Amino acid sequence: MKQTASKSEKRQKILNAARSLFNRTHDVKRVSLEDIAEAAGVSPTTIYNNFGDRETLLYEVIKELASRNLERNRGIVRSSLPFLQKLISIISSKMDIADQVNSELIEKLVTQDKIIAPFIDELYDQEIKPLWLEIMADGKKQGYIDPAMDDAALLAYLDIIQAGLKARPEFFKNFSDNMNLIEQITHLMFYGFLKREIDLFQKEEK
């Protein structure tokens, strides 16, 4: 006897089909619910019953993307990898997204469109910040980060980076075309723009 898919299985099939179709187009608005329904092997009514409308489905795809990336990074941070390899792996995972995900989805994810913003803000405060504190603590133990660096300073820095990314959505409209700029910004985030350490506050003379 042929088994019918459960509601959760149908929902996941729809999400998978939508993500695949969104990633294969330069304009996600051109992907219709009918296209998604056909790719998922369900009726448009099933999509309406599960998601309500196309916009809600789009944001569910974005939320799933963010959650999967978070899970991957959590696995990296809590692995036995050396600190530097953890950083490289996290950065690599973000670059992989650029190759695999439509730039419109990345733009909505990073700039936090008003519908997705509450979810991303909660994810950032409840999950991403604590993960950064974990990896920074690891970096201090392994001698890569100054142990005198306060967690409060790190969290303030992350907030500034987050706000800055929201303010410059043009970076993400053509993510892959701006890859060199993204790499330089990432370099600045971790190393600053000075080639060597300078006693900027002249504390050594006091």
Structural overview:
- With 206 residues, the chain is an all-alpha fold.
- The chain has two domains: 1-52, Arc Repressor Mutant, subunit A (Orthogonal Bundle); 62-205.
- The protein is built from ten helices and no strands.
- The chain has helices spanning 7-23, 33-40, 44-51, 54-77, 83-100, 103-111, 117-141, 151-167, 170-173, 179-191.
- It is elongated, with a radius of gyration of 21 Å.
From the helix content, strand content and strand pairing, which structural class follows? mainly alpha
Domain unit count: 2
Give the H and E element order: HHHHHHHHHH
From the N-terminal CA to the C-terminal CA, the straight-line distance is 83 Å
How many strand segments? 0
Low-confidence spans? none
Largest sheet: none
Radius of gyration over C-alpha positions, nearest whole angstrom: 21 Å
Number of helices: 10
Mean pLDDT, all residues: 82
Strand content: under 5%
- Residues in helices, as a percent range: 55-70%
Taken from the alpha-carbon principal axes, the silhouette is elongated
